[in-house]
Write a structure and sequence with these properties.
7-stranded mixed β-sheet, 488 residues, disordered C terminus, alpha/beta, globular, single chain
Length: 488
């Protein structure tokens, strides 16, 4: 049996799956990554641990299917997380600065004050927010030892370096598009942006198509040296591709620590209203564009609330939420500020409209509802900007496997949601791209016909309109800045 080994390197875990030439998921493996919070608002990881977790996940996956030969390797990765290493020795020279990290908030404010916001957004489709890597690259470079040959990059480029034994420094266009250093129209690193963020263009990786030749493996456990690496793509983009969302208007929500809402576009549309424009994928030199809204904290609020309420696990929290009476409080999970469509770094997490009658179940429901309401806000902004409707809507990621959570999303959006029964949509998308690159599947039409396990979740009659008012009040309180009110 021919198979693609797809690596999905995420924020909390690295996963590996084998995907057969029939599009079937043959085996899985996973390993934890670990994450550190050295200061309030700072989030980072160990690049060596990231690589080790990939090796552990691959080993577990291959051991579960020992008779399957690997035809090619595919990469899907957490985005906006960046790191730095010695180009000659491969030694990490700093941490992985996570997409969640807010350490560059002051740098972003300075760049906005200097008048760079409109220009950066017009070239990259991205706002000046600490989530995005431009200032993070400079932060890493400022702390690197002198006299070294430096390479910096997104996580796909770090994995390509590790997988090839240091022979290649490359990323794909979807990851480059999230760097704040890439010109979406010219499809190249921008000297102007590199000057704004003070990053030497020579330390950046070569930008390839999402389905391309990224070199061959060297030293990957269980995989013969010389196995081709034939795709790399950001995890959210990979999920969109994995669903076969190839038509303009098709969209998906990837639920995880945060959430990514993405819809395919007919061409480039300049972003506004808190939404970003990005490259969904690039094939044969032709980019496909997408709108995206990045939600900073989504399912990450569930274990937090589980512990606060003294419940045994997240499943118990969701079961409790399902019993809640109406007229509960609102909750905004702005633990690290609010992402799309607000992009407010000063927003703070809070409950609103709590009174003596508020129950534990209502507080649990407010937390689960916050996942759906954030998605609603992003989709509303997308529809207002595009002027068109949303086509097929898919949901993936671990939390998408919970029927109650997906029913909440369908009810709030007032539209059906296709619940993907296999949570590995990102890995599947990367595998499809690699298979396309090696000729396992000849065209997108072939990939669109591959079997997919999914279940339609239709909206039910509900009081979501009233609950949206409570949500809106909570957001207003979360983003209220007394310093602004006082004129400070």
């Amino acid at each position: 049996m021919r198979a693609i080994l797809a690596i999905d390197q995420g924020t909390t875990n690295s996963k590996a799956v084998l995907v057969s030439d029939k599009g079937e998921l043959v085996s899985r493996g996973s390993a934890p990554v670990g994450i550190a919070y050295p200061k309030p608002g700072w989030v980072e990881q160990d690049p060596q641990r990231v690589w080790k977790s990939v090796c552990e996940a691959v080993t577990a996956c291959l051991q579960a299917a020992p008779d399957i030969g690997v035809e090619a390797v595919a990469i899907s990765n957490q985005r906006e997380s960046v790191t730095i290493w010695d180009a000659e020795t491969g030694e990490p020279l700093g941490p992985v600065v996570s997409w969640q990290c807010r350490r560059t908030a002051e740098d972003c404010e300075r760049l906005i004050h200097e008048g760079h916001l409109d220009r950066v957004q017009s070239i990259t489709g991205l706002p000046l927010d600490p989530m995005f890597p431009g200032p993070k690259f400079r932060w890493l470079l400022d702390r690197a030892p002198a006299g070294r040959h430096l390479w910096v990059g997104t996580i796909d480029s770090w994995l390509v370096h590790c997988l090839t034994g240091g022979q290649r420094h490359a990323c794909d266009a979807s990851n480059a598009a999230r760097s704040q250093l890439f010109d979406l129209q010219k499809q190249a690193w921008s000297e102007e942006l590199c000057a704004i963020f003070d990053v030497d263009i020579s330390v950046l990786p070569e930008v390839l198509d999402s389905a391309a030749d990224f070199g061959t493996t060297l030293g990957l456990p269980g995989v013969p040296d010389g196995t081709p690496i034939r795709s790399a793509i950001g995890d959210s983009h990979a999920a969109l591709f994995g669903h076969g969302a190839f038509n303009p208007g098709d969209g998906k929500v990837t639920f995880g620590t945060g959430s990514s809402v993405m819809t395919t576009l007919p061409g480039f549309i300049a972003p506004k209203s808190g939404i970003t424009t990005t490259i969904a994928w690039r094939i044969s030199g032709k980019p496909t564009f997408a709108f995206e809204g990045n939600i900073l904290v989504s399912a990450a609020s569930l274990p937090w609330m589980t512990e606060i309420l003294g419940l045994p696990d997240v499943a118990a929290l969701i079961d409790l939420a399902a019993t809640a009476e109406p007229d509960g409080p609102g909750f905004v999970p702005a633990f690290v500020g609010l992402g799309a469509p607000y992009w407010n770094s000063e927003a703070r997490a809070l409950f609103s409209q709590i009174n003596f009658n508020t129950t534990r179940a209502q507080m649990a429901r407010a937390v689960t509802d916050s996942i759906a309401f954030q998605v609603y806000d992003v989709f509303s902004a997308m529809q207002n900007q595009s002027g068109g409707g949303i086509g097929a809507l898919y949901a993936d990621g671990g939390p998408s496997q919970n029927r109650f959570l997906m029913q909440c999303v369908a009810d709030v959006l007032m539209r059906p949601v296709m619940q993907c029964k296999a949570p590995e949509a990102s890995a599947l998308g990367a595998a499809y791209l690699a298979g396309l690159s090696v000729g396992m599947w000849p065209a997108l039409e072939t990939i669109s016909r591959l079997p997919r396990q999914s279940q339609l979740v239709s909206p039910e009659a509900n009081d979501s309109a009233e609950r949206r008012k409570t949500w809106g009040d909570a957001v207003a309180r979360s983003t209220w800045n007394p310093a602004i009110v006082k004129g400070e």
